[in-house]
Design a protein that fits this description.
This protein is of the alpha+beta class. It has 13 helices and 7 strands. A 7-stranded antiparallel β-sheet has the order 4-3-2-1-7-6-5, covered by helices on one side. The protein is globular and about 75 Å long.
Length: 540
């Protein structure tokens, strides 16, 4: 069957044009914000541990069995998780050392790990049947995946099915791939303002197109833009296109997949050229506009302060009742849910740190070569599990809160917690190692010296853990409370702040986003409420 190519390209063009406008504005504002932050940067917390330099070793390697993309045959592959959380897989274990090209590479940014692929595939098949007006009970059922198989799932990109050989390996790889989903880098353009501006532009583009709701963008620039266009096509065109499909389920499903792949290729071609043009424009224009913005920064600050004061005078009587009714009653409960599991996780890892140092033996001429087991300790799923399990006890309570707060993602928040524990533990191990080496890399330290440095480092570890727990608690509470607070505050204040935009002086108008100033205002109000509640809980 044919599909309306010209109509699809028109939709793609309209999305790209809207995105270009929003991205240009968001990038300029991000650049202004970066300059403002440089001039008014708050002091960093009083961290006492040394930060480990960038990790250069592969995070995990091992054999897994992977389903092929085309023939669906199962083949054993040597998987390598690189320091940047990208994944390569090879036919042989020796291929990496021999510098052979990997059989494939996976970027899990935006993916999700499903530990029961049979259940998740059936669920998606039911939803697809409903969308296509089919009776699910009459459809051929998919083949079952073998035990110890997990799915690396994305709603539009290729899904991967991988089988481990033991339950222990299954758990270990699932934990590792979940970390990759969380930490893998999506955006490829290495520019701080771009990283701030791109997701803002994606969100505002969707809003401009009438796709309301909170939206998280994960993946490369082209992938995110393609998914924005895909949403528009689903809304405008695809129901009509797929409604033309006739014949048995197998034929309709095959044709649907074929049409979808053709459309995806068409859209990706349009997006690649559009993004390349935007990226080039940013790279060429930034050196020209940044000096001008720096010259204007003082009048921008003065104008912006005046605007914020006007907004504050007008909207506080609207915001404070919303805060009192929809934020304050939930603060203490969320603190209790979040703070105790993370604190328990750190208390557990203090014990693990103590045990690890006690077992360490200084052998050989070069002490640094005896640190390998300690280096891997914070990255090991099994060794860290007593601590991470404690932190993940918040999952069920967070999931229960979704009845009230729809935008909670419990696994993401648990990943935040366990990552904080791992990172700080890594810094503690590194700090201890550097203090040991300072005694002399070729000298065997006495146990008394080892223990003294261990206790000194532990004091720093506990100090930094207190900071991390407070920062994490505030961050999670903000993630939970901001979306509903924002949803109530924005409409209530929209008519109030609109006239204030007319008072912005002409020369600096292009650099001031009154909506952003308003968002900063109510974000600050929410931050103050959260920090006050945390301090009260800490003192009580």
């Amino acid at each position: 069957m044919s599909f309306p190519k010209d109509e699809i390209l028109e939709v793609a063009k309209a999305v790209c044009v809207t995105f270009t406008i929003e991205y240009t504005k968001a990038y300029t504002l991000a650049l202004v914000q970066q300059i403002k932050e440089e001039m008014n940067a708050p002091p960093e917390p009083d961290w006492q541990l040394e930060k480990r330099p960038k990790w250069e070793k592969d995070l995990k390697t091992g054999w897994l069995v992977k389903e092929g993309a085309i023939r669906k045959s199962w083949k054993r592959r040597w998987f390598v998780v690189k320091p940047d959380y990208q994944i390569d897989y090879y036919a042989e274990e020796t291929d990496l050392a021999n510098k052979k090209k990997p059989k494939g590479s996976i970027n899990l940014c935006g993916y999700w790990v499903n530990t029961d692929p049979n259940d998740s595939v059936i669920g998606r098949l039911k939803r697809l049947a409903e969308k296509m007006g089919m009776d699910f009970s009459n459809l051929p059922k998919p083949n079952e995946y073998p035990p110890l198989t997990f799915e690396l799932y994305h709603w539009r990109r290729r899904c991967y099915y991988v089988t481990a050989s033991t339950k222990e390996e299954f758990d270990d790889w699932v934990a590792q791939f979940r970390s990759c989903c969380w930490w893998a880098r999506g955006l490829q353009f290495d520019d701080g303002c771009h990283r701030a501006a791109f997701p803002v532009a994606a969100q505002k583009t969707r809003w401009e197109l009438g796709r309301w709701g909170w939206y998280s963008s994960y993946g490369t620039e082209e992938q995110i833009m393609c998914e924005m266009i895909a949403d528009e096509l689903d809304y405008e065109i695809m129901g009509r296109v797929f409604g033309q499909l006739v014949g048995p389920w197998f034929i309709r499903s095959m044709l649907r997949n074929k049409v979808q792949k053709a459309i995806d290729a068409l859209v990706m071609g349009a997006v690649k050229s559009a993004w390349a043009a935007m990226k080039k424009a940013v790279e060429e224009l930034r050196p020209q506009i940044e000096p001008k913005i720096r010259e204007l920064v003082e009048p921008i600050f003065a104008a912006e302060k005046d605007i914020v004061d006007k907004i504050k005078d007008k909207v506080m009587s609207t915001i404070l009742p919303i805060q009192e009714e929809h934020v304050n009653p939930h603060l203490r409960k969320i603190i209790d849910i979040v703070r105790k599991p993370v604190s328990d996780g750190f208390n557990e890892v203090f014990k693990l740190y103590d045990e690890k140092i006690n077992k360490w033996e200084p052998t050989g001429a070069d002490l640094s070569k005896t640190f390998n087991d300690l280096d891997w300790f914070p990255r090991s799923y099994w060794q860290m599990r007593p601590a991470t399990d404690k932190a993940e006890e918040m999952y069920q309570s967070l999931d229960d809160l979704r009845i009230i707060f729809k935008d909670i993602y419990p696994w993401s928040l648990c990943n935040h917690a366990t990552s904080s524990i791992r990172d700080l533990t890594d810094n503690a191990i590194w700090t201890w190692q550097q203090a040991i080496l300072a005694q002399g890399a070729d000298r065997k330290p006495e146990r008394e010296v080892i223990d003294r440095i261990k206790y000194e480092t532990m004091e720093k570890f506990r100090h930094d853990a207190d900071i991390a727990i407070t920062r994490f608690s505030a961050k999670v509470m903000k993630l939970i409370l901001l979306p509903p607070f924002e949803a109530l505050v924005n409409p209530a204040a929209k008519l109030i702040i609109a006239p204030i935009a007319e008072t912005i002086p002409g020369p600096v108008k292009q650099f001031i986003d009154i909506q952003k100033d308003f968002e900063d205002l109510y974000n600050g109000i929410l931050d103050d409420a959260i920090n006050s509640a945390i301090q009260h809980a800490h003192n009580s």
